Amino acid sequence: MKVATWNVNGIRARASQVREWLERERPDVVCLQELKAESSQIPEESHVPEYHAYWHGRKGYSGVSLQVRKELFAVDPVYSHPPFDFESRIVQVEHGDLVIASVYVPNGGKDYAAKLEFVTRLTDWARRLHAEGRSLLVCGDLNIARTEMDVHPKERKPNAVGQRPEERALFEALLGTGLADLGRVFDPDNPGLFTWWAPWRNLRARNIGWRLDYVLASPALAARATSCVVRADVGTSDHAPVVMTMG
């Protein structure tokens, strides 16, 4: 099973890239963020026939999608949203005891308190699911660089949103519900493991970036994972896809 997540920074601008990537990568589960489009604005070429697709968007801002390869589900999957969803930031799908969520945490630059509240509620939700014996995959742009190593030295700034101690503490609390950060599980010591690069000064080509996009997995799922990689050469979004493979 292959699970992929990608902040596309505008599905209308990236529709052909998304389709080409899906046809080449062939993930079983696809989580997209920052659609910046209502459902009616999703380009036709974004609809790949092999997938059940759910688009949860709003005009010009935010938005998430969750797509599942039809071979995985005998019937149409049921998509839903936890109660703390706002601004079209989370969609989940259930498959037996497995819950998969596509998540786009607020950046926090305009409303920092709302970001902290969202991550707190996300953590409470993950804790409840684990208490119920569910397995969980959280995929998406969490807009927090987990540690200092997850930011290039040239980009490290005291008190920068995305790097603040209280944000990182909330991230660790989320992991404390039983989730593993698979990017670091498979590449624990790489100081150049980034998923986002500011779109100026050729930062992506120079790999001066931040790690903001994650696949987080419950223990039983993490034990089955065989790889988790960043596809830094894919697309023109300021984010790169992250792809996890499970045996």
Describe the structure.
The protein has 247 residues and is of the alpha+beta class. It has one domain (2-246): Endonuclease/exonuclease/phosphatase (Deoxyribonuclease I, Chain A), CATH 3.60.10. It is 23% helix and 26% strand. The chain has helices at residues 11-25, 112-131, 165-175, 182-186, 219-224, and strands at residues 2-7, 29-33, 51-56, 64-69, 79-80, 90-95, 98-104, 135-141, 180-181, 213-217, 225-230, 242-246. The protein has a six-stranded mixed beta sheet. A six-stranded mixed beta sheet has the order 5-6-7-8-10-9. β1, α1 (11-25) and β2 form a beta-alpha-beta unit. α2 packs parallel to α3. The model has no long low-confidence stretch (mean pLDDT 97).
Brief descriptors of the model:
247 residues; alpha+beta; Deoxyribonuclease I, Chain A; six-stranded mixed sheet
Helix content: 10-25%
Which radius of gyration do the C-alpha atoms yield?
17 Å
Instruction: For the largest sheet, list the strands in their spatial order.
Output: 3-4-2-1-12-11
| Topology order in helix (H) and strand (E) letters | EHEEEEEEHEHEHEHEE
Distance between the amino and carboxyl termini: 6 Å
- CATH topology title: Deoxyribonuclease I, Chain A
Tell me the overall shape: globular
CATH class: Alpha Beta
Total helix count?
5
CATH superfamily: Endonuclease/exonuclease/phosphatase
Largest sheet: 6 strands, mixed
Strand-residue proportion:
25-35%
Uncertain segments = none
* Total E-strand runs: 12
- Report the average pLDDT across residues: 97
